[in-house]
Specification:
The protein is mostly helical and 132 residues long. The protein has one domain (7-131). The chain has helices at 7-28, 32-42, 44-64, 72-106, 110-131. The longest helix has 35 residues, at 72-106. The chain crosses the membrane at residues 7-25, 45-65, 72-92, 112-130.
């Protein structure tokens, strides 16, 4: 079992690994994120399932992560969890318009978003590793 001091670091590690994996996938197969968003826009069931999963994961992160105002990583991880809850609710309530907005935001700069995701992933993994 993880020590409560390490929970924020473990969550940051796994979010960082997710961001790195997603970035590598997009860089190896450009346009896959745009195709995914197109699929979300056209499928009610996929949007609903995605909203439920994002909401549940965000709530889990928010509730499991210990709140320590003196620890900046704890604050960041809690904010990420809360943001995921809001994103899940928005996907459930405003799925098509929200995902259309996300698709327009990505536009033709998928590579830039992928590199940003990879950078964020690396930072989170490194910060987590320094905590162990």
């Amino acid at each position: 079992m993880a020590d409560t001091q390490d929970i924020s670091a473990w969550i940051a590690l796994f979010i960082g690994l997710y961001a790195l994996g997603a970035a590598i996938g997009e860089l190896r197969s450009p346009g896959s994120w745009a195709a995914m968003l197109d699929g979300f826009e056209t499928s009610e069931a996929l949007r609903f399932l995605t909203g439920i999963v994002v909401l549940a994961l965000g709530a889990t992160i928010y509730l499991v992560n210990p709140w320590r105002p003196d620890d900046w990583l704890s604050i960041v991880v809690t904010v990420i969890g809360g943001g995921m809850v809001v994103e899940g609710v928005v996907i459930l309530g405003f799925g098509r318009p929200f995902l259309h907005f996300a698709s327009a935001m990505m536009g033709a700069v998928n590579r830039a978003w992928a590199l940003l995701s990879a950078g964020l992933g690396l930072v989170l993994v490194c910060v987590a590793m320094l905590r162990f």
